[in-house]
UniProtKB/TrEMBL annotation:
Keyword rRNA-binding in record: no
MF GO annotations: RNA binding; structural constituent of ribosome
Keyword annotations of the record: Mitochondrion, Ribonucleoprotein, Ribosomal protein, Transit peptide
Main location: mitochondrion
Protein family membership: Belongs to the universal ribosomal protein uS15 family.
Gene: Mrps15
Species this chain originates from: Gymnorhina tibicen (Australian magpie)
Taxonomic superkingdom: Eukaryota
Name of protein: Small ribosomal subunit protein uS15m
Location within or outside the cell: Mitochondrion
Entry keyword annotation includes Electron transport: no
Annotated GO biological process: mitochondrial translation
GO cellular component term, pick one: mitochondrial small ribosomal subunit
Length: 211
């Protein structure tokens, strides 16, 4: 303000919030054409005779991200579908398509907001779930697994085998646990033998009474 002194003007300029420029991160939904209709209106025959303004309102140009994700999911289903009427195969019913879209969306979100730990945890859980489903499909039908990974642009990495670093403390603890387990098994065996002898004595007494 011109009426303020130079010190106050400098202080006001210093106190202004810093405007950070957002990164222009390309989205995986950018390849959808804006003239494409939404999923709920794409197969309606009346859409061929409606006005252009109505088509524009019902197209992806005016759609939300959720509606765009529905269209993207339908496109991925068409890629992995074995036949035009295939609705029951594992790759169609499985969550590969939805998981891929959610994972890509969360990746883009985390690039803009890297400190969002909740969504990072959700993304890791989705990755683990998808890896398990892909591992099952790989064991059942390897050709379908390869085709699904190729069509959905998924890179599968098998889980690494669990390994433990062998230390002296771990070896001593393991030997102690084995010894405790063996002693406990001996006590249980003595108790079982005593119980068995009691049952046998009762059975003999019952037989003697019957005779």
């Amino acid at each position: 303000h011109p009426a303020c002194g130079p010190v106050l003007r400098a202080a006001r300029g210093y106190a202004r919030p810093v405007t950070r420029k957002r990164k222009d991160i390309p989205s995986h939904l950018d390849d959808l054409p804006p003239t494409l209709l939404k999923k709920d209106y794409a197969n309606l025959p009346i859409m061929n005779s409606v006005d252009d303004v109505v088509k524009r309102l019902l197209s992806l140009e005016m759609a939300s991200q959720k509606e765009k994700m529905k269209v993207k999911t339908q496109q991925l289903v068409e890629k992995v579908r074995r036949s035009p009427h295939d609705n029951g195969s594992f790759e169609v019913q499985g969550k590969f398509k939805k998981g891929r879209i959610l994972i890509r969306t969360l990746e883009e979100h985390l690039q803009r907001h890297p400190k969002d730990k909740r969504n990072r945890r959700c993304m890791l859980m989705d990755l683990d779930r998808r890896r398990k489903m892909l591992g099952y499909l790989r064991r059942v039908s390897y050709s379908t697994f390869e085709n699904t990974c190729k069509q959905l642009d998924i890179q599968y990495s098998p889980p690494q085998p669990y390994t433990r670093r062998v230390t002296k403390r771990w070896l001593v603890k393991k030997a102690f646990c084995i010894k405790v387990f063996q002693e406990k098994q001996k006590l249980k065996a003595a108790e079982r033998l005593k119980q068995r002898r009691e049952w046998q004595a009762r059975a003999r007494a019952a037989r003697a009474q019957q005779e």
